[in-house]
Amino acid sequence: AQSVTQLGSHLSVSEGALVLLRCNYSSSVPPYLFWYVQYPNQGLQLLLKYTTGATLVKGINGFEAEFKKSETSFHLTKPSAHMSDAAEYFCAVSDGDFGNEKLTFGTGTRLTIIP
Amino acid sequence: DTEVTQTPKHLVMGMTNKKSLKCEQHMGHRAMYWYKQKAKKPPELMFVYSYEKLSINESVPSRFSPECPNSSLLNLHLHALQPEDSALYLCASSPGRESNEQFFGPGTRLTVL
Fold first, then answer.
1. Rounded mean pLDDT of chain A?
2. Alpha-carbon B37 to chain mean position
3. HEC profile for B33-53?
4. Contact between chains at A99 and B95 (C-beta distance less than 8 A)
5. Residues of A in contact with B95 (CB under 8 A)
6. A52 touches B at CB < 8 Å
7. CB within 8 A of B109, min separation 6: which ones?
8. For residue B1, pLDDT beyond 70
9. What is the pLDDT of residues B46-74, one digit of tens each?
């Protein structure tokens, strides 16, 4: 079974500082990988996804992630944190055929922004 | 319309009640999903409907009964729930064979007394 591991359940960064959220995956086949963000009392919003092709993926709100097969990693970064980035971030891996896929989420990282 | 809607936003029910959660999308998506999310935990998949047929049931107790009346609508019928079933219930949809991107609704916050 495919799985993802997120290192660090909490991360605090200063406003304007680099954000780095770590995700490592375990998969026997090329994975489909996603980063979702969840604001308090809301559903999940897709930040970006990796399917095939370019290993550097750009998403919404200035976030990007790089797929590194040799390191089995898909870390999420943002050069300069903003107060509005405070939220829970989930890395996820997809398994199964399109239209019948199972998303397995990491345990999440809560990002706090320090003014 | 590019969103998934869920009703109600909040639901409080007793252990003997019968209630239903509703999810709707008008994006022409052919796959719909129910997830359960406990506080401070990631979402966990419960059911998948693919082209209006139940394709995945993640060993969910029978007190949860899903229904997909048509390709735009997904229901979750609840009966004889336990307090430990209190959680945020999230619905999602995905296009089908051309993409595996899932779009999530805002969720229904369920409290079982």
1. 93
2. 11
3. EEEEECCCCCCEEEEEEECCE
4. yes
5. 98-99
6. no
7. A41, B9, B10, B11, B88
8. no
9. 999 999 999 999 999 999 999 999 999 99
Which of A7, A26, A15, A10 shows the shortest CA–CA distance to A82?
Answer: A15
- A 10 A CB-CB count for A64 gives 16
H-run or E-run covering B107: none
Spell out the residues 6+ positions from residue B61 whose beta carbon is closer than 8 angstroms to its own: none
Pairing of strands A10-14, A64-68: unpaired
A21 and A6 Cβ atoms separated by less than 8 Å: yes
Q: Show the tokens assigned to A94.
A: 């997809």
Q: Say what the pLDDT of residue A100 is.
A: 77
Q: Are B100 and A98 an interchain contact pair (Cβ–Cβ within 8 Å)?
A: yes
Contacts of A83 (CB under 8 A, 6+ apart): A15, A113, A115
Spatial CA neighbour of A74 closest among A86, A62, A96, A57? A57
Interface test with A, best of B21, B38, B60, B100 (most A CBs within 10 A): B100
